[in-house]
Structures
1.
Amino acid sequence: MGVGTYEQFLERMYKMKPNIYVGDEVIDRKDPRLAAGFYAMRQTFDCAHDDRYKDVCTATSHLTGETINRFTHIHQTQDDLFKKQEMTKLLSHRVGGCIQRCMGIDALNALSVVTYEIDAALGTDYNQNFINYLKWTQEHDIVANCAQTDVKGERLKRPHEQSDPDMYLRIVEDRPDGIIVRGAKSCNSASPYVDEIIATPTRFMGSKDNAYAVSFALPADWPGVKLASLPGLRHKRTHIDAPIAHIGDMESLTIFDDVFVPNERIFLNGVRHPESTRFAGFLAIMFAHFHRHSYTGCKPATSEVLASSAALVAEYNGIEKTSHAQEKICHIITVAELVYAAGVASAVRAVKMPSGTMIPDEILTNAGRKLAGEEIFNEVAILTDLAGGLIATLPLEDEFYSDDIGPLLNKYIMRDPSIPAENIHRCFRMIEDQLVSDFGASQMTAGLHGGGSPQMEAVAMMGGYNVEKLKGIAKYLAGIEPDIPIYKRETVTPRRVLEKFEKTQK
Amino acid sequence: MGVGTYEQFLERMYKMKPNIYVGDEVIDRKDPRLAAGFYAMRQTFDCAHDDRYKDVCTATSHLTGETINRFTHIHQTQDDLFKKQEMTKLLSHRVGGCIQRCMGIDALNALSVVTYEIDAALGTDYNQNFINYLKWTQEHDIVANCAQTDVKGERLKRPHEQSDPDMYLRIVEDRPDGIIVRGAKSCNSASPYVDEIIATPTRFMGSKDNAYAVSFALPADWPGVKLASLPGLRHKRTHIDAPIAHIGDMESLTIFDDVFVPNERIFLNGVRHPESTRFAGFLAIMFAHFHRHSYTGCKPATSEVLASSAALVAEYNGIEKTSHAQEKICHIITVAELVYAAGVASAVRAVKMPSGTMIPDEILTNAGRKLAGEEIFNEVAILTDLAGGLIATLPLEDEFYSDDIGPLLNKYIMRDPSIPAENIHRCFRMIEDQLVSDFGASQMTAGLHGGGSPQMEAVAMMGGYNVEKLKGIAKYLAGIEPDIPIYKRETVTPRRVLEKFEKTQK
Amino acid sequence: MGVGTYEQFLERMYKMKPNIYVGDEVIDRKDPRLAAGFYAMRQTFDCAHDDRYKDVCTATSHLTGETINRFTHIHQTQDDLFKKQEMTKLLSHRVGGCIQRCMGIDALNALSVVTYEIDAALGTDYNQNFINYLKWTQEHDIVANCAQTDVKGERLKRPHEQSDPDMYLRIVEDRPDGIIVRGAKSCNSASPYVDEIIATPTRFMGSKDNAYAVSFALPADWPGVKLASLPGLRHKRTHIDAPIAHIGDMESLTIFDDVFVPNERIFLNGVRHPESTRFAGFLAIMFAHFHRHSYTGCKPATSEVLASSAALVAEYNGIEKTSHAQEKICHIITVAELVYAAGVASAVRAVKMPSGTMIPDEILTNAGRKLAGEEIFNEVAILTDLAGGLIATLPLEDEFYSDDIGPLLNKYIMRDPSIPAENIHRCFRMIEDQLVSDFGASQMTAGLHGGGSPQMEAVAMMGGYNVEKLKGIAKYLAGIEPDIPIYKRETVTPRRVLEKFEKTQK
Amino acid sequence: MGVGTYEQFLERMYKMKPNIYVGDEVIDRKDPRLAAGFYAMRQTFDCAHDDRYKDVCTATSHLTGETINRFTHIHQTQDDLFKKQEMTKLLSHRVGGCIQRCMGIDALNALSVVTYEIDAALGTDYNQNFINYLKWTQEHDIVANCAQTDVKGERLKRPHEQSDPDMYLRIVEDRPDGIIVRGAKSCNSASPYVDEIIATPTRFMGSKDNAYAVSFALPADWPGVKLASLPGLRHKRTHIDAPIAHIGDMESLTIFDDVFVPNERIFLNGVRHPESTRFAGFLAIMFAHFHRHSYTGCKPATSEVLASSAALVAEYNGIEKTSHAQEKICHIITVAELVYAAGVASAVRAVKMPSGTMIPDEILTNAGRKLAGEEIFNEVAILTDLAGGLIATLPLEDEFYSDDIGPLLNKYIMRDPSIPAENIHRCFRMIEDQLVSDFGASQMTAGLHGGGSPQMEAVAMMGGYNVEKLKGIAKYLAGIEPDIPIYKRETVTPRRVLEKFEKTQK
């Protein structure tokens, strides 16, 4: 029951109402432009039934004891964190990059922590809403994404100061049976092919921002939810099919056009419980934190995919053993290993929250995500360097199969006579897809900004790091202080945000 | 006469025979997929008639004294080099990057030097062929590209050692009236919309490579010339037209399928004159050198275009004045200025060759091109960073004009209320075109590999630099040698290749 | 018994014979120029008795069950690896960088693995020699360093091919009671103030290099052992004493001038057992590997010391809260965390060798050490940047205490009135010691080369990494292979060297 | 007359009064600790008489028509700028880095421009003071430095806001015959061995900062001028003398302890002429600008010195021809060429000021200086990398000449048998001096901060760059504006500061 199938997922999708805006159309989930996104989601179902992946792709529900898809699991142990990282990495290999479903698990885990703490502090019952929702999610292997990034309008103004009050998603009406919300969430990946959209705040909210302290979950085709979409372009292959040719995504600006959310789907409501507003920032960064831990799985995978292509094309180009090629490939591998290590070490230092959820160390996950973001363009540059200009000038696929010039193209693409022309063609065609395409280029942007850019990680790190204690080392060595504070860094979690909020309120 | 018009150029194009292979079609120059390339070429004609650009875009022919388009001019003075650099830079601004016509002028200048030296050494008449060709070119404002990069087959083998002897363009027959050539040139930009293709060797040729020492010019639709093409994808704009939406290119693998070249179009023939084979490397690097000098014009322009977009989007995002945005924009500007400076300084140190052609310093042009290549991905990363994830998730253009969600999209894209939604939309749409598109991504590859990757420039620099003399400084400071060799670097030119060749032959 | 005291150590030192060459003198261990080195060693004794550090600085001997100093322990468990890393990090904080005693523990652990395997393969009794030696070491809390780096002569020739056969340490005579060795080991840190010097090979040895396959341990003042030394310069403080002013080291070129090694101190002898020559490379890289794991402790500490000084001086300079200072400090912290994470993750993936010794994963330790080496100069640049030019122009200490200009200097060094002049003086004086001094500058070299430069780590990584399996990802995505090899990287250990050797011999 | 000799300079030095504080002493110019500084200054005299350098080291005074030392010349033409750059570069080769005398010429040129403009605006006679001073300077070949960097106290407060009003040099009394000044200038290189100290403001001064708008020149031993010094440490060579061993400097915190400046030596007095206060910032940045242009001479020289050592030690280590060594050396050469090119291009775009002084372009000089500052630590890292750990562990010089171990050290330092041991020893000893020494380390700090750190250059560049015009390119390409502003960057000079000041005052 708790480990669904792709077919069940697809059946749910096909029943949904059309609310996907693509150009001048409004389409439903049967539209072929969604196939590339479904391809990614499919891996998360199929692998959970595949003996080779089952160990990392399933888990035991702490609510029911049943076997469930790990994408719906709340991390209970260090091992859960290890396995979530490994699952994310292995599945990302299969799709050459983003596996797209991590938003859901990260949002669920964040809510598990924060709703618990709100209720503990305020006596509310958000956690009960959440637990009910989670059970349903686990039972049906529900796919969710997370709508977090508000459009933000004037960047230097807080939500309640904006000229247009709708620039952050807000509660326009609090009713006995629920709330009406209005606003839009940007950069909302995969929304056209998920069951559920979970909305969370994108930043700290101050005491005047009660209307903006809101979190909930809704079906992706709920009345008033409008998905203004950007389909990733796909190259249609006519002769040489390959997994890379099936992979893509669809992004949306997700508009909440005065949408009703019933009470049982609400996880935070700053209008009804003004005291809960201070948990908005905690929830925002809690999601970001779990998401960055996911990146310690997918980003090493992305680096490894790039290193893999780099090694293959270097072999085909006959330069694999040159020292410069070795060093460049090694550089990408080094990045992959370090980002991966950051995730492992963050799990080694994980702590259990009052809700029972395990949280990895925040400094380490952010350090890993930061390096990944800083290196993505450099990694692409290395692959481009080793591949050569051909990836941007490769004649179209059909030309290789033309009676006239096909034989000539297959002749002139040859390098080492032992490697068939088709393999070389496949390799360069794949790199074209990876780098020199709409989708490929968008993945670089995602590599920099997805889950927060390096600048955001620096802010998170410096927010959590005890710099005063760090200075104690210098003060000791300089003779300003008589002894060193035993400097063993303690685990840092996003809860610091809440503590800081409470401190500044005094 | 010497300054043609776009209309004349187009008329010539429309008369050409179809030899452009695109997918499963063979198209001629009226095909709309060539429009983006024509757009770039058009600037080189129109600006030569525009009072604001005329000074840099025209020159006085040293052959006829007539005013000609500078793209057909042989540099006679330092000022010619300054103006060629400036022209390249200014026109590149207009097309947001590569102006596409520089290959022609660079090939012509290279041939002016090398054919002169061959004749001086061997008593041949290649220079006369060239002069006649040049006159015709200047008179009709002919557009040429340069086919240099052979497909190269097994990278570690020399041309005559290849399993398939056709992996470098070669002479398969030397006849009284001309030659028959066979082979293919890769990464051949703009070939579908030029008048002429000038073929040059891609590397040094040794004494067994006579058949590969060949250079000539032919009309781009000449019998046997087959252009296996890759059209750059273009986003069709339906509502907000803009120059960026018109810009693109078309690349080809240019196949010479046993092509006859008449004597008067031959500039180097190692079969007929085996002694001339040693000039093949000189010609190869001479073209690369002029081309890298051109890059000191277009690469600063590319950087400035990126810095321009970065500054505009930073303003729209309300972060223009933050110190991190300032530093990032400043970094791109610094690269632009340094690459530009390398071109200026290389012209300051230019020397006049026996043929009368001015050659800039080779170390400086290569240093400039090298920096540009090393920085291109970083510059794109900066623009991506300042723009944010929206460039990869912006809903399609039509959605902004939909009756249903159009008003919502225009509402939610707003930032500073004083900036109209359409301007913001235009700005992000432009950056999407620049970065998150097939064409945009291909420009990064071109930025790294066009004219030779940084690794190639390092090889050229270390080939020309007098490292032994440089060591004299250390030997003096260490007391190993009694005095310093007065270390003023002398101008280095590709002629060193010829001298080295002659030295190694003894 | 197994946890010695600094006083016992010093007593042993004072009994040693003078064999330390400093300029035109030969000195013994009472010479004040050794004080700085003793200062570092002292921490390793004192902290083992300090409740705050005891947990990480002591261990339980697997041989005797007694409590011993961890610097003499053989890692038996994952937790041992965690604690060794933590100990190295915490003690390095106390000395502002290198704790200097890790060579000993790393050499012992390497020998524990390799001597066991030699005996298992060849029926020799090197491991028994080692176990006896280890027991004595643990009992007396012996300090050892490791002499590994041969002077190497002509770099491109193998040991037996050198013009001078002594360019690698070699056995010149194999006698019944032992061997006579000749040669020199370069960059031999701390040799003037250790009990024992452990010699190991520096590279692979082929079948003609039997005489160079040698490992042994000797007292540092053994007849024929000559320490050609370089004392680190120390600034004598006259007024403001501080820990940083006590820290330094002494390096040597350690000459083995026809030295006799008795049988019981020999751990590898390729002359006596030619089959054992193939273990030379295994031992060489086994030591390097444990040493690089140590670097995942000391290098984060070094980064944290630099970040600590950077944060303190930024505070004193009043720029701590600027975004550029925050980002720069964050950069150093990120490096520290990632290198630390590499060590943690390598321990998580550790495997137990046949000898019972735990070995961390080689790819991860090397990735961590590599990043540290690549970043050290950048980290120093950041501290220099935030500190300002004053660190290189600070008037001498005495001038601050002069009746004439002392008050003026203390006046003009003031910044925020709440920070006393002396603290500011102390802070800048410390940074001068850390960066703008002989010792400080030598630490940068050590940061790059100590334990092997980044280039060496790249070689080790690419030697151990299964690139062919990695390529499987690309082959799957490109459609060249039908499925992905389940890509979970297996733990890599230096034993691969032995396996490779055996493969190439066939 | 106008080209003095080292002997004349020394004679003047020896007559000066002792005011150099070194530790607990007050020394005069005969003290041997000044020898290293004199060594550098000597080059500027000797080379002006050396036929090989005369062309760049002398000039024709525009005041008297006489031949003078170029270090006292006011640039009149583009060629003067070229030659100043070349002189700085060539002399810097001779001292392995900073030639130390450029501060004087840069301060004089800045004063030539600004005093002229003050007088033109206010009818004062500062320029006459300056001209008289310049004549005397040129006649006697006077050596001057420039005291610019105030100690600055609380960094975020303006001069008049400081808790201690003396944190910026200020006029404490304006008398009929002159002024009394109080304050201190930090990082004041070479002051113990110059004839004259020229004081200039360090930043913009607002209307409340009149007392801080002050510039003047005084003999370096003038009553009340106290030089709190830091002598660079020198390694005394006993056996292998070499130029590098003679080079050093002496820095000071220069204290003006209520010093009287006579009227004829005053170039700016904001107390007497409050309107002139607005020229303080112009003068500050004008000096910085000429100084950064000087850096386009000395920084390429510094890079070339490092590249020279790198190439030599790579040869001695037998790795010169490896691709990684070639690429690393090429990287340093590239930096040298680009920084040099920035200086050349800035001179090509130079403009003549109303005073007749030629000013190079400010964007280009800053771009060059910025790159140099960003790369210095990386260049040192490269040299360290290629040299190996020996530079930090080389036994002391005397040990190589010991009867006992000398022969062994000379044996074990050998590499290629054709290179004598002494040469190898000299090479590593030199690199030790260059990198692993107090002086060497201080040169890295100087390379980053001297003349302003990269951050300062970024500020200068963004202050002068017309970013609004730059944005015009993006607005055109996006279709926001109908045409591109013809984007040819105009020459930028520090006069922009004055214009901006005047604009903000309105």
2.
Amino acid sequence: MAVVDIQQVLLQLFVLISFAMAAAVVCKLVKVPTVIGEILVGIIIGNTGLFGALQLGTDAQVFEVFKQLGVIFLLFAVGLVTPFSELRKVGKTAFIVASLGVVVPFIGGFLFMTVLGYGFIPAMFVAAAMVATSVGITARVIGDMGLSDAIESRVIIGAAVIDDVLGMLVLAMVVGIAGGSGSDIAQTAIVAIEGVIFVIAVIIIGGMVIPKVRKVREKKVDVEHPIRTKSPLLSPLPIALVVCFGLSYVAGTFGLAAIIGSFLAGMAFAEFQDRWPCKEKFEPINEFLVPFFFIFVGVQVQLSSFNDILLLGLALTALAIVTKIIGCGLGARSLGGKSAMIVGVGMAPRGEVGLIVATIGLGMGQVTNVTYSIVVFMSLATTLAAPAMLSYAFKAKIKKKHIEKHIEKEDDDGQLKFRDR
Amino acid sequence: MAVVDIQQVLLQLFVLISFAMAAAVVCKLVKVPTVIGEILVGIIIGNTGLFGALQLGTDAQVFEVFKQLGVIFLLFAVGLVTPFSELRKVGKTAFIVASLGVVVPFIGGFLFMTVLGYGFIPAMFVAAAMVATSVGITARVIGDMGLSDAIESRVIIGAAVIDDVLGMLVLAMVVGIAGGSGSDIAQTAIVAIEGVIFVIAVIIIGGMVIPKVRKVREKKVDVEHPIRTKSPLLSPLPIALVVCFGLSYVAGTFGLAAIIGSFLAGMAFAEFQDRWPCKEKFEPINEFLVPFFFIFVGVQVQLSSFNDILLLGLALTALAIVTKIIGCGLGARSLGGKSAMIVGVGMAPRGEVGLIVATIGLGMGQVTNVTYSIVVFMSLATTLAAPAMLSYAFKAKIKKKHIEKHIEKEDDDGQLKFRDR
């Protein structure tokens, strides 16, 4: 049985939370999302003597769990403000946004690497890393701005879920091709199809079954135990935790990311918000755990390798942002120009998803260390750039709205679309 | 860098929380504190194939941290409802309760083991394990009953803190004697004295300095930044976490238990409850983490070894409860008979503190496996018995109070005292 030095963990928690708190104060003063401060804290810890001084390596297991729980609970909270019924409203737009947001960056990344003289399979890996959106960053920025229920936010979150599934499909494809055998492709295709079926099934079942279950339960409770609603046998939080961990685990068994499961669990729980209110209960838990996710995303950055690949990294970053804005913006053009821009920018951060793809390619020996570093640079640069860009895009729209109010809507939607893109 | 299987952790969390939730429902139906259900869940997991099936051994580090954070946050929450000013009111009584609650069980345990033919040092170890109260169990029961601000609760919690320091002093003494060298005793005595000074210093400094700091801060804020109170730069939760982890760590460096630090941190924060309200924020965090403490207290129980030592274990359990009731009850006699009984019963559970003492003795080769098992049995039996006894004692008093109200306080305190003990 592994023993853990609790004294050491207490010191680590004390230092990490102190740093995150200091970063949050600075971020609030200079008015940038606190998530940037948390990632920078991670970068500082990971690239100075602090990581060693704090002996974070010996407790890697513990902080990996904190990090993962942070992102799982974050997506659960995002799901909580996205009921099934609402998602269906933006379903079609989100699907188009996700599809074009996968196709355009993939083609862009593949052509870019091919033009630079890279081989077919390395180019495919970089292209695959260009595909998947890290919804965590965007969700946090949206949450910090209090815009979780804006139509653009829902499209982004909805598209990011579909995008994750599509991105996985692309990755499965690339890994299958890189692996080389025909049976591998068939197997990975099956895994990918299972994933798609899982997500669609949960959304359809959730959207159709839950309202009916609700009605039956409510009737039962009212007739049999009218007092129970005052002193419930079941507390909302453990139920929410069980559903969240359960669906996250099931998502994992389908080869999907755990966060897809927790997001779906949050969506399911959103339908029971009046019966089992748990949004307020997850807020302090997330305030405690979510910073660990972003700190440790930062910790994994190796600044030393960035000197060699700065130019190529910047070029790929620009391409990654532009292709998402074009692809997702095209998909969201029905919402109007400013909103399409918000969606495109919101889908831009690759974060940990890009890093995972790069790691798989490196692990398979299909991409070199330099190529890996370029993808890491792109993932982080889009992640660092997106919050500022997103909050700027949102503010531009909010300002516009205020102006529109004063001039009593002189502009029509068509005009806006053309002028903004 | 150690890797952790997140899928496995998600499954473990799902199963553990499901079990705890089911146990909580059963406990609510049969009206016993949910903490008993959680410990029983742990005993079931630890003594069946479930521990292996869930592969809890491979993630021992992670769940050890969850367990420790659970008890640290629990004591912080207890501290939150125990401001310094309030503790000073019960300070004298609590000190007498703690002192007699250490002396009587120590002498009782030592005589019992000596009469049974045990040697001097094993008898000293068992006696030391009889001393320390596990305040966690009692704090939870009190919390479940909504009686955290009852005078008896404060005496118990206050006495348990002093008791922990005294218990440590006794343990340091016993370890010093068992170790054999004169310099060891001197060193352990220094450690023990440091601990006492630390706790007393924090309480005195906290009680005297914080109110003055408050006044200065409030004046400053009102004059310079009158708007800041609406949108504070600092969120209460991170401040509370930093203070909690910081003081827990400092307590550890003084050789004290981390929970003493977190309790003192909670007390300090209680003075700022109006400025940085965080009681409501710790409730969901504790609802998530505290069950892990009690589940893993249960997991460590080895039922198989209990056959051999059942009779001796029961005898020591009875002695442990009776000596605490006599010692602490005598100390609390000024509160009245029923209240003295509550304090005595509330100080009875030994829980993890008794287990720690037994483990140290076993590790030093000074107690045999059988003696160790007897102490483990006693620790658990007092822990399992105390909640039911405590809630019974509280209910008896509450009922009495209702009757008293109706007969308009015919009984005087003196009469009550004699009749109840």
